[in-house]
Amino acid sequence: MLQKIGFQPGINKQISETTAEGQWVDCDNVRFRYGTPEKIGGWKQLGTDDLTGAARGLHHFVNSLGRKYAIIGTNSILYAYSGGVFYDIHPIDTTTTLSNAFSTTNGSPTVTITFPSAHNMTDNDIILLDNFTTITNSNFSASDFDDKKFMVTSVPSTTTITITMPSNETGSGATTSGGIRIQHYYTVGPSVQGKGFGFGLGSWSGPAAGAVTTTLDGAINAAVTSITLSDASQFPDSGTNFIIIGSEEISYTGVSSNTLTGCTRGVAGTTAASHSDGDTVTNSTDYVAWGEAASGDLIVEPGMWSLDNFGDKAICLIHNNACFEWDSSSSNATATRATIISGAPTSSRHMLVSTPDRHLVFFGTETTIGDPLTQDEMFIRFSDQEDITEYTPTATNTAGTQRLADGSRIMGAIRGRDAIYVWTDTALFTQRFVGQPFTFAFAQVGTNCGLVGQNACVEVDGAAYWMSENGFFRFAGRLESLPCLVEDYVYDDINIESGNQMISAGLNNLFGEVIWFYCTSGSNVVNRMVSYNYFDSSPQRPVWTNGSLSRTMWKDSAVFGSPHATEYDAGTDSSFDVVGNTEGMTTYYEHEIGTDQNKNGVITAVTANISSGDFDITQARSAQGTQTGIATFKGDGEYLMKIRRFVPDFISQTGTTRVTLQLKNYPNDSQTGSPLGPFDITTSTTKVDTRARARSIAMKIENTAASQSWKLGTFRLDTQPDGRR
Fold it and tell me: How far is CA 531 from CA 29, 322, 340, 405, 497, in A?
């Protein structure tokens, strides 16, 4: 006879599929609403351009003129988005004018630029060229360079850089004239996070007795793997050893006479470069004094931003660097760039604007303003009220400082309903505005609950939600550990060691979801998500989902009416605005739009699925102990069951939805599909004949093509016991 089957909302991956009877055990691109699973909404690309690098900051605001802005900070460039267009508002670090400084080589796409003095650039920095008037002896024209952005390919020396053109030089070698202007963008940082080396990326200081040195016997380029020295007698000749020439560290594996063999160039994060005959060569293998570089647990954090707005001004902090402002209300705002905030700290980990009191607050910042060497990762500094240029406390202003006690560094902070929540790597603090003379009151409200990464927290309805290395937490007046039925699944496969700063949280307030995006083990880019539904959850039954949606940043619908998010593609280097990009690209999306992905007009399916735990049957018995012959679910598996048909039920459905019955007789068996399945269900399907037989059965609901969506109702199965064997 037909019987209804029902499942509890949320995914449970803490138990086996056999134990999870009456529960869901896996899903992708699915949410629960009113206790019922449904496919999530689709998304559409905003604008027609892909941005350079990985987005690590996103902020929405509406200025006093009613214009909506999204500020997007990648590890390469700061953008403002408005009206379907992206504008480059990145601050300029230095501007240099050069003459006859460009050189090319026939058959190569490389352009070498020579500066009269040290340029202080690194690989992957961005430069903007303009005032480029004349170039001769080259197939490249002035228009190939003028008013174009380039990514620095390499730094052969302190006074030279290279850039890469889309094609090879076919002329004899470029000659330029005129005062070419090179604008160097402020450096943000790497696109991903990784392991570093202590005290920088190369050996320095050296032993008290003095380092063993010699000189090069002949010039070398950046590619040679054998290096001849004037005297190699005091250089180790077995195992893997290291030398330093200039700023480049080189490993080698052998010594033949005075020649080092098996050389690997540009190790330990340094850059392979050309070196001249007679340059000093240092034996860095035997650097043993204080200051020696050593691989260890030091994390090289990705290039990140803290973004907020102070009225019409976008406030933009480069992680562990300076802070900038961009006035959106100026008459030509989109043609201007962010500029450094006068008087503000020049090196800070994080920043936000406190409201409604309007202080600009820096976290993990300098104890002496303007001196980056005094940066204290537990130190807080805030401006005078309504004045983001004044940070020196006086008797007549509200500027001030505070150092937190629990932890080794401040990880992040967000505004709450009546306080700022501040996390270190171990604890949670509140920062409340109390007025003069103290301005802010600080209180520790949680321990062993530190924030895993700067962006791994959100606030909604007066409650803060965040991810720690110890699990998921909530604070709404008291600290709570969020029960999580996918916790082992997430933490057993998350890249906590090298991916913590790339974990980001987002709020989808349309559906009551807090979402965390993270890197799985073995990945250095975001490729998974886990979400918590605070609408449908209860202490007894928390509602969690998991999936493969990969977004580096997410912002809710408060400003634009729908959520916006960024997706990073590390393997594609096309971007609309930078020549020679090697940092991947970011696509900017509007979510909860339609049923599919629309990327620049190309429609692809958003596939979604959900799978149940195993369920079996038993035979109900009367009080007298006689069999009634009626099969009931949540049985003990004593009897095999025969499923003759099922009656599908969808609350809503677009297109076709696929139903698969997964059969097995024992918990460790592999699942097999029913003989007549899988079954493609349309809105006109009334019943489905199955001819399935097994001791336990699981259901999988999915869509496989574009223009398909579904919201599950209550299915009914026609089952009967079919013996014990």
Answer: 11, 34, 37, 32, 21
Rounded Cα gap, residues 455 and 72, in angstroms: 14
pLDDT of 133 higher than 50: yes
- Locate 49 and state its tokens: 């351009």
Mean pLDDT, to the nearest integer, of 50-58? 97
- Report percent pLDDT > 70 for the chain: 92
- Comparing C-alpha atoms, which of 157, 163, 279, 168 is closest to residue 217? 279
Nearest to 91 by CA among 179, 188, 159: 188
SS3 435: strand
- The Cα 192–Cα 174 span in angstroms is 35
Domain extent listing, the chain: 2-40+608-721, 45-88+305-593, 92-185, 198-292
Helix, coil or strand: residue 644: strand
Q: What are the distances in angstroms from CA 317 to CA 75, 105, 350, 354, 414?
A: 12, 40, 7, 15, 15
CB of 449 within 8 A of CB of 428?
A: yes
Query: Residues 722, 693: contact at Cβ < 8 Å?
Result: yes
Question: Which CATH number describes the domain made up of 198-292?
Answer: 2.40.30
The DSSP bridge partners found for residue 431 are: 420, 442
Q: Tell me if 378 sits within 8 A of 402, measured CB to CB.
A: no
Residue 439 CA to residue 420 CA, distance in Å, equals 13
- Who's near 148: CB < 8 A, 6+ residues apart? 128, 129, 579
What is the reported pLDDT for 676?
86
Q: Tally the C-alpha atoms within 13 A of residue 261's C-alpha that lie toward its C-beta.
A: 7
| Fold (topology level) of 2-40+608-721 | Jelly Rolls (2.60.120)
Is it the case that residue 617 has pLDDT exceeding 80? no
Residue 414, number of CB atoms within 10 A of its CB = 19
Q: Max CA-CA distance within the chain?
A: 105
Q: Looking at the predicted structure, is the pLDDT value of residue 290 above 50?
A: no
Apex 592 CA angle, 586 and 594, nearest 5: 105
Mean pLDDT of 333-340: 97
The C-alpha angle with vertex 450 and arms to 448 and 454, in degrees rounded to 5, equals 175
- What are 8-36's pLDDT values in tens digits? 999 999 999 989 989 999 999 999 999 99
Of the candidates 567, 564, 556, 560, the one whose C-alpha atom is nearest the C-alpha of residue 590 is 564
Three-state secondary structure call for residue 372: helix
| Level-2 CATH architecture, domain 92-185 | Beta Barrel (2.40)
Q: What is the pLDDT of residue 315?
A: 98
Same CATH fold assignment for domains 92-185 and 198-292: yes
Cα angle for residues 130, 134, 140 (degrees, 5° grid) = 85
CATH for 45-88+305-593 is 2.130.10.10
Question: What is the predicted pLDDT for the residue at 208?
Answer: 37
Per-chain mean pLDDT for the chain:
90
> Measured between alpha carbons, how far is 160 from 164 in angstroms, rounded to an integer?
14
Mean pLDDT value across residues 580-606: 97
Coil, helix or strand at residue 380: strand
Exposure on the CB side of residue 559, measured as CA atoms within 13 A: 18
Q: Which residue has the higher pLDDT, 476 or 639?
A: 476
Distinct helix (H) and strand (E) counts, the chain: 2, 67
For the record, the structure tokens of 434 come out as: 């109390």
